[in-house]
Specification:
heterotrimer, A alpha/beta (251), B alpha/beta (328), C mainly alpha (256), B: 3 domains, 9 helices, elongated, C: 256 residues, mainly alpha
């Protein structure tokens, strides 16, 4: 794992260059460029269906871009084998929009799953310790033996977050973390995201519509329009913008 | 974790029980088919195995004791059946037991039956060749039965026709009801009998005459020198010859008539058949019987003529005298 | 199934299922092996289906015996009742009824489970977690169904035979030993083995169809129901088709 996290670490953790992706005639991403630096939170804003989810799925390797290159922690992922990709994935946390908790497994098994998958040589005591640590980070230590179906939406989101945290990732990708939650719970989640960032020094790429989230969590904001990076700037600068296409997001 | 181990145990039990049942199932079948633990092999030869296959049961006195292992063709008329049977049968089956092929039930699988014979003999050995018996082949049986049925059908049909004809035929009834025919036949036979008796005596007498002549007695001189006499003699001998011919013909005719009558009565074929259809025949029978009658009376006449012949007159007279004397 | 009015979607679907099957066949023996998941699936798929399969098997054996009795009596072969029921159960009823019940229970549950996993991104999450979802979900499940259906079918045979024994004894009296002997007198390897072997194919069909329908589930929660339904229908039809094929193959090989 040492060879993957190389010296370039100080600067960009994710570099996306000229990435294009289309589904049939639907051109979702066209020559998209983005750089995520270490300890930076970037929020991607865009209309529904503008290709935000496609973007992070390309980063995590669930989708393959048609054109362009993506480099994660100094490793280009265009032509890597599945095993190499899994090694890179171990460094990335991914919080799914629908949480994607395994229904058939308890909370503990859910958290153990990526741990055992990525770090095969790990003993049971270490696993238990890390599971409890991750649950403590999200404040849900008591749910360890419950099934996902028994938990509320907010709790599930936090368990899902704990599951992404358990591998101590360097990058966390959030796919609409506050969608479907009430404002108070959403706020809690956003605060949790910030706490985690402080604690583990992670870089984050957040896809969101939630202005609260955008306002609090973002270092920089990317506006995705028609498959391209239309604007990239801080929250303050963008709110002052006169461009109607930018303005529509902040009204 | 504990729960998971409990689940594993249940799964293990579940799978094991299934495997056990499968093994039991296969073992039971194998046991029934003698796949295990039977090394005793016996053989027998047949001309026709009637569809016997490897795996068919072998029975001794009705008990399953093994299975057919293989059927080998030795040559065009010999098939050798090898059987695997239970080892313990070695001390039971004797070497003179008879092997036959039968059927389990009327339409079941073929089975091999081994039957003990009530005679002393040693017990079988490994690879013993047992004598076989041609079994009752249901196929053949049915075939024969079929043919028999057909024949019976034809016979019945013929019988029916014959009976109908007899019933409808006036001729046969006339013939049967005509009481004069047997009487006539009887009379002719009587006549023939008489004639042949007479011929017999005549021939005996001629013999005696010839003996007389040979011994040189009587009228031999005359015979030798008188030409008229000689001509007479010739005629007499000629008469004799004709007589013989006639008698021969008559007896032939009678025997033929009687034979055909006989045949007719037994075979319902030939003359009687014709008889049934042909009323002319009755006539013919009448005529032939009449003819026989007439010929035999002709014979009698000839015999009388011979008696009258001067040559034998003296001889006959002598015999007559002897007869009358004898009677006295 | 809904769009099977014209031939093209049907052929397309068949092609996709075939591709999926080939993908399974080319993957299942390659590492990584998901042994633990396989055992868990065997437990869920096999052991948990036993009560249902056992119940149907028992009823099938009992009912078949009771239904056949009047005719056997009519033909004067009442004593052959165990034989005929035994052969029917071992050769056909056991495997096929078990497979159909199995398709109903397991086919639908696999279709629904994988379908909902697909819809709620759990399959993606697995891939992100360094797991090949195809191996973890599909291979383990298909392998489990392939292994478990024969196990279930054999147990179902046993239970059905017991049911038949009770059925024989409702009227008339037959000792268990006689019943047992009569069945095994008539049975041969060619009755048991083809019937046993075909259950592997039935199990495989149920697993592969359920997984296919679930793995490519679309249209959200509505799609999950459709996947579950289609899995059962297609798997059941496939079982009959495979049954037909198996009888023809055994006939062809001369084992029938």
């Amino acid at each position: 794992m040492e060879n993957i996290s190389n010296s370039n670490l100080g600067k960009a953790v994710i570099e996306i260059k000229n990435v294009s992706k289309s589904f049939g005639d639907n051109h979702v991403l066209i020559d998209f460029n983005l750089t995520l630096n270490k300890k930076e939170n970037i929020v991607v804003l865009g209309k529904s269906g503008s290709g935000k989810s496609v973007l992070i799925k390309c980063i995590i390797g669930l989708l393959k871009p048609d054109k362009g290159s993506i480099t994660i922690l100094g490793n280009p992922i265009n032509d890597v084998t599945l095993t190499e990709m899994d090694k890179i994935r171990a460094k990335i946390g991914f919080l799914f929009q629908s949480n994607a908790l395994y229904d058939s497994m308890s909370v503990r098994e859910n958290l153990e799953f990526p741990l055992r998958r990525h770090w095969i040589k790990i003993n049971q005591n270490q696993v238990n310790e890390m599971v409890l640590q991750a649950l403590e980070d999200v404040g849900l230590k008591h749910t360890v033996d419950m099934m996902p179906i028994e938990l509320s939406g907010g709790m599930r989101k936090r368990i899902a977050l704990a599951r992404t945290l358990i591998l101590k990732p360097e990058i966390i990708l959030y796919d609409e973390p506050t969608t479907g939650l009430d404002p108070i719970t959403a706020k809690e989640i956003i605060n949790l995201m910030i706490t985690i960032k402080e604690k583990y020094n992670t870089a984050s790429l957040i896809i969101s519509h939630d202005m609260n989230c955008v306002k609090i969590a973002s270092d920089r904001i990317v506006i995705l329009l028609e498959g391209k990076c239309y604007a990239i700037d801080s929250y303050e600068n963008l709110t002052k913008s006169n461009d109607p296409k930018v303005k529509q997001f902040f009204e | 974790m504990k729960k998971e181990i409990g689940n594993d145990v249940k799964l293990g039990l579940f799978v094991l029980s299934s495997i056990l049942f499968l093994i039991l199932l296969l073992y039971m079948i194998g046991k029934n088919k003698n796949f295990f633990g039977s090394n005793l092999k016996i053989r027998s030869r047949f001309e026709n195995v009637q569809g016997l296959k490897a795996g068919n049961n072998v029975r001794f006195a009705g008990i399953n004791i093994g299975t057919v292992d293989v059927v080998n063709i030795i040559d065009d008329t010999t098939l050798e059946v090898s059987m695997n049977i239970e080892d313990k049968m070695k001390d039971i089956i004797k070497a003179n037991s008879i092997v036959s092929i039968g059927t389990d039930g009327l339409v079941g699988n073929k089975v091999i039956n081994i039957q003990a014979v009530k005679e002393r003999e040693r017990h079988i050995e490994q690879n013993e060749l047992l004598p076989s018996r041609r079994a009752i082949d249901t196929d053949e049986m049915l075939k024969t039965l079929n043919k028999t049925n057909k024949d019976i059908g034809i016979i019945a049909e013929n019988l029916k026709n014959t009976t109908n004809k007899i019933n409808n035929s006036h001729v046969i009834w006339d013939l049967l009801s005509d009481k004069s025919i047997p009487k006539k036949i009887h009379a002719s036979l009587e006549n023939i009998n008489q004639s042949s008796n007479k011929i017999k005596t005549l021939l005996n007498h001629s013999n005696e005459i010839v003996e007389h002549v040979m011994s040189g007695n009587g009228s031999i001189g005359l015979l030798l020198y008188d030409t008229i006499m000689r001509a007479n003699l010739f005629t007499t001998i000629e008469n004799f010859r004709i007589l013989g011919k006639h008698a021969n013909e008559i007896s032939k005719q009678i025997s033929y008539t009687l034979d055909s009558f006989n045949n007719d009565l037994h075979n319902s074929k030939g003359t009687i058949h014709a008889l049934l259809n042909d009323s002319l025949l009755t006539h013919k029978i009448h005529t032939s019987v009449d003819n026989i009658d007439r010929s035999s009376s002709g014979l009698n006449e000839i015999i009388d003529a011979i008696k009258q012949s001067f040559l034998f007159r003296a001889y006959f007279r002598k015999i007559e005298e002897k007869k009358t004397r004898g009677l006295k | 199934m809904d769009e099977s009015l014209s031939l093209k979607p049907f052929l397309k679907e068949t092609g996709k299922v075939s591709k999926f099957t080939i993908r399974y066949l080319s993957k299942w023996f390659l590492p990584p092996y998901e042994i633990k998941e396989l055992i868990r699936q065997c437990y869920v798929i096999g052991y948990k289906s036993l009560p249902l399969v056992g119940l149907t098997g028992f009823i099938m054996g009992l009912v078949l015996t009771m239904q056949l009795r009047p005719f056997m009596v009519e033909y004067g072969v009442e004593s052959r009742l165990p034989t005929i029921v035994g052969i029917a159960i071992i050769r056909e009823i056991g495997p096929v009824i078990t497979a159909l019940i199995f398709a109903g229970k397991i086919g639908s549950s696999i279709g629904a489970e994988l379908g909902s996993m697909k819809v709620t991104e759990q399959i993606d999450a697995m891939e992100v977690s360094g797991t090949n979802p195809f191996k973890y979900l599909v291979v383990s499940r298909v392998f489990a169904t392939t292994l478990m259906l024969p196990v279930l079918a054999i147990l179902s045979d046993a239970i059905a035979l017991y049911g038949s024994y009770l059925g024989v004894n409702i009227k008339g009296e037959t000792s268990f030993k006689l019943f047992w002997n009569q069945i095994f007198e008539a049975l041969e390897f060619r009755d048991v083995l083809p019937a046993y072997i075909k259950t592997y194919f039935f199990g495989f069909a149920v697993g592969i169809i359920g997984c296919y329908k679930g793995f490519f589930c679309e249209k959200g929660t509505e799609g999950v129901g459709q996947s579950a339904n289609a899995s059962v229908v297609i798997a059941s039809v496939l079982i009959f088709i495979l049954d037909l094929l198996s009888v023809q193959i055994t006939e062809l090989l001369g084992f029938n």
